[in-house]
Amino acid sequence: MTDRIHDGRAPDSPSLRTATTLLWGLVLLALVSVAVQLLDLDALVSEAREVEGSLSEDEARVGVLVGIGVLGAFSVLVRLFFAIMVRSGRGWVRILFTVYAVIVVAMAAIGLTGGGEVLEQGLRVVELALVAAALWFVWRPDARAVAR
C-alpha cells in the first residue's frame, strides 16, 4: 500500500476515472452556465434595477457582470479542484466532495422549485445528475479500496 501513496501516480480505479470525467463535465457545465447568463445580461440588468431602484443602467450592468464573473470563476475553480483531487485518490476529498455535493443538490433543488427559464432548469437537472453520479462513483468499493 505504501507504494501507491509515495510513487506519485494516480490510483488505477475505474470509478475514480468515471467520477473525474463527470466532474470535468461539471466544469464544462459551469462555463455553459456563465455563457447563458451573459446571453441574458439585459434581463439580469433590468431585474437588478427593479430590485435596487437607485442604480443607473451602467452601475447595474457592472454589478451583474462582476457577480457573474466572480461566482462563475469560483464555481469553475471549485469544480476543477474536485476533478483534480478526486482523480488523485485522496481519501479526504471524498468526504469534502460529499459535503459539496449535498450543498449543490440542495441549491439545485431549491432552484428547481423556484421556476425560471427552461434552459436554466435544464442546466440544474443536468447538474443534479452529474453531481449525484460523481458522488456515487466516488464511494464505489474500487474507489474506496485505492483511497490514500
Would you give an account of this structure?
The protein has helices at residues 2-6, 14-39, 41-51, 57-88, 91-113, 118-138, 141-145. It is an all-alpha fold and 148 residues long. It has one domain (12-145). It is elongated. The termini are close together.
Break the fold down into its secondary structure elements and pairings.
Blueprint (H helix, E strand, L loop, with lengths): L1 H5 L7 H26 L1 H11 L5 H32 L2 H23 L4 H21 L2 H5 L3
Helix pairs in contact: 2-4, 2-6, 3-4, 5-6
- Overall pLDDT: 86
Helix content: over 70%
Give the overall form. elongated
Please give the alpha-carbon distance between the first and last residues: 9 Å
Order of helices and strands: HHHHHHH
How would a textbook summarize the main sheet?
none
Radius of gyration: 19 Å
Provide the β-strand percentage band: under 5%
Q: What is the count of β-strands?
A: 0
Structural class: mainly alpha
Number of domains: 1
Number of helices: 7
* Low-pLDDT ranges: 1-6
Task: List the defining traits of the structure above.
mainly alpha; 148 residues; disordered N terminus
What is the compact description of this entry?
It contains seven helices and no strands. It is mainly α and 148 residues long.
